[in-house]
Amino acid sequence: MKKEFDKFPKNFLWGGALAANQCEGGYKEGGKGLTTVDLCPAGVNRRKVMEGKIDVLKPLEDEYYPSHEAIDFYHRYKEDIALFAEMGFKCLRVSIAWSRIFPNGDEETPNEEGLKFYDSMFDEMIKHGIEPIVTICHFDTPIGIIEKFGGWKNRKFIDFYLNYCKAIFTRYKNKVKYWMTFNEINMILHLPFMGAGVRFEDGENELQIKYQSAHHELIASALATKLAHEIIPGSMIGCMLAAGEFYPYSCNPEDVILAKEKDRENLFFIDVQSRGEYPGYAKRFLRENGIEIVFGEDDEEILKNNTVDFIGFSYYSSRCASSDPEILKGQTAGNVFKTVRNPNLKVSEWGWQIDPLGLRITCNSLYDRYQKPLFIVENGLGANDIIEADGSINDDYRIEYLREHIKAMKEAIIDGVDLIGYTPWGCIDIVSASTGEMKKRYGFIYVDKDNEGNGTLERRKKKSFYWYKEVINSNGENL
User: Fold this and answer.
1) Could you tell me the residue range of the domain that residue 121 belongs to?
2) Catalytic residue among 107, 184, 217, 378
3) What is the largest CA-CA distance in the chain?
4) Fewest Cβ atoms closer than 10 Å to its Cβ: which of 56, 68, 127, 386?
């Protein structure tokens, strides 16, 4: 049968994406233990906690923690999955809260109540014909093992993680085919506590600790890939990158090489997970910065023999790099870290640049580099939605953003990119990871809750709900 190169594949996985720590709530229910995100408050201290600059191992009385209730998906998942099914979702990206399965992280046997919750959630998805796409660790490392062992800088975490993986692979092997080992693994360099439970003592070499912790996660990811292939024949195991091409601000060669170096800082992780070895540029960086990674005896072989099956990535915007100190003064916000403002692009209310063509560029760069299937597992527009007098929510700005990015995806497919799925971020309004806000909304479904935690949690369909339903129904033809 002749392949149609100008259309989305017939088996394309249209859906949406969520994370347990941003939607579930129920942070002490069902035997669940504390995780890193449970300690990230809303407000001015959030970023400092995520970076490991404020050392906390339990919630503080004078802070508000939006993840503790979130949008109460823990109790309302059936209602929400039914809404996703109404849109026609082919898949749903979710994460498992590690501390629901192992509350402290180092137990020998898993928490049955936690396992049953995800059994029920997956059963509900499958009942509606929705394929689960599961992130194993999405910024929610158990506090119990962080307190005892110091986070991912301790190699013992590999064993704790693999024990967790073995439990969920064994339990859900007949329900889940697609897995990703770590969410946005490169965020360990920017948000080390939230990303990997890493805290710093005065005088420690933070860069050394970040890269040693990253090495442990990379070994854990490779061994989890091996374990999944053994326990679940035919499973697809992916990595996950916070992506977005760096453009040189000008044709000055200094800007060009800087943009390449910025790209490589992020791609390093995926190079190792997809190619199975540390690239030469990474070895040079480590050498020139006095960083000595401690390798286990079999680490090189482990990485080489257990590469991922697909590349999952988030894309919200492109980035820009400049070597000019004056240009560097003009920075704008982005996914966790700031970037030089590109004068050719518009920005969202939160300062994130809007660049649909950048998605096509990023898809081509990643596919050219790895020659493995790509899965866009996050993409979307955070905006402050308004409920009209008649109860409607006319989020045409979101529709426009997603429409242009889907067009770019189609162009990438025509370019020859093997793209297997698309799960827009926060398909129902959830707590923002970067700011802890609720008013920064991404969803097709509005949730009645404000930044202070007030609201009924009522679900309400936005205009984009009906638009995306037609996109899926037409397999991306009717935009």
Assistant:
1) 13-473
2) 378
3) 66
4) 386
